[in-house]
Amino acid sequence: MIGFFINDKVKQEKLSIVNGEPIQLKETANAALVVNFKTGQIVAEQNPKQKLTIASTSKLLTTYLVLKAIRSGKLSWQQRIKSNNEIYRLSQNTELMNVTLYPNDSYTVKQLLESTLLISSNATGVLLGDAISGNQTNFAKLMNKTAASFGIPKSEFKFFNAVGISNSYLGSDKIRDISDKAENLASVKALSTIAYRLFTDYPEVMKIMQENQLNFQYPNSSQHFQSIGTLSKFNAEVADTKIKFIAAKSGASRSAGSVMLGLTDKLANGQQYLSVVMNGSDYETPLPTWQLVANMVKEVMNQGTNHVIKKNHAITGSKNLYLQKTQLNQIALKTASTFSFWTNGEGPQRISAQAIPYDRKSTAVKRGQIFTSKINNTKHFDYLYGLNQFHKIKLQATKSTRISHNLFIRYWRWLTH
């Protein structure tokens, strides 16, 4: 499975190239991506870097910022946020999904975030953004700054508001000097990176998404709003695929078409996938897009090979590590951590790493000492933005060894090397 050449003095065996090129999808969609959730490696793609309208999937980044504000203490779950006339007007727009937010009534952060995630309410998301940044202009700046901090190229995203609606819907809160038609944009790789960061940095968000329905209780009233959550609807619609999802977010607009993002449970092959489709069908008929999200996962499960190299895996190919210029010591090495990767091909693969330069001043290697190298026989591996951990590997010495301190011997070895 794995061969490492520890020093440039050790004869290296030339290994074949390991191909990690993603499967090239040919779906009826503007863009699509499937990611191995454990590693962030992209295993299937279609048009991954084109900036497209993302509609309500924008709320994933808003959710990230709300949870970040809660963790930092800027917001709290039971903190009440006061509505106003502009928010009320937005919540009454029949063209948008909404929970009515009455002027001067206050709603908890928990209520607002649940509504934003479970049924994709728009006014609740805008109110949360205003609570963090004061207005949508400032919140959009924060969204763009955060996306850039994830390592996403600026050419692949542009956010104008918290929820992905057209700028015109925001009334007095809209961003000036841009078109009223402006909507949030991102590539499918950028959107997938945002979702990955949300699910890994704030995994508690999945518990909210997994609630079967929204029960929104109005303050000082017996009135309440109920609706089935997106994830429950999604799993019901794709039940025939036998793929279970544990998190999902949909979006739809005339310009975006239907957008869907889903995170699977661990599947029969031991893997977990993030699957995303952009404009897979008309915005009024989302089911073909939803089916496509699940079917893409089924497709990738049957292609390529998943490899796992566990922690403490004994290294083969070379066990030689130099401590001095001419002194060769047999040092058994093992992997210092578990790592996984997918290859676009069948059967076992052997990987090699760059030689680890020796330190001429070193006189010993201690048991457990860590050496870092870079894998050097792979091509076309691609990861979500900000992730590239596969190309570095940490090795660990399994025993200690020491070189003689005899200065004459060391000097002679240096002269005759």
Give a topology summary:
Layout: E1 18-19, E2 23-24, E3 31-36, E4 41-46, E5 52-53, H1 59-72, E6 80-82, H2 85-91, E7 106-108, H3 109-118, H4 122-133, H5 136-149, E8 157-158, E9 185-186, H6 188-201, H7 205-209, E10 213-217, E11 224-228, H8 230-237, E12 245-253, E13 257-264, E14 273-278, H9 287-301, E15 305-309, E16 320-322, E17 328-330, E18 333-335, E19 339-343, E20 364-365, E21 370-374, E22 378-379, E23 392-397, E24 401-402, H10 407-416
Parallel strand pairs: 1-22, 2-4
Antiparallel strand pairs: 3-4, 3-14, 5-9, 6-7, 8-9, 10-11, 12-13, 13-14, 15-19, 16-17, 18-23, 20-24, 21-23
Helix pairs in contact: 1-4, 1-6, 2-4, 3-4, 4-5
| Spatial gap, N to C terminus | 34 Å
Total helices: the number is: 10
- Choose one word for the global shape: elongated
Spatially, the strands of the biggest sheet line up as 2-4-3-14-13-12
Averaged pLDDT, please?
Answer: 86
* Main pleated-sheet profile: 6 strands, mixed
Radius of gyration: 26 Å
Uncertain spans: 1-10, 318-329, 404-417
Q: Bin the helical content.
A: 25-40%
Which class best fits the helix and strand makeup?
A: alpha+beta
**Proportion of residues in extended strands:** 15-25%
Number of strands: 24
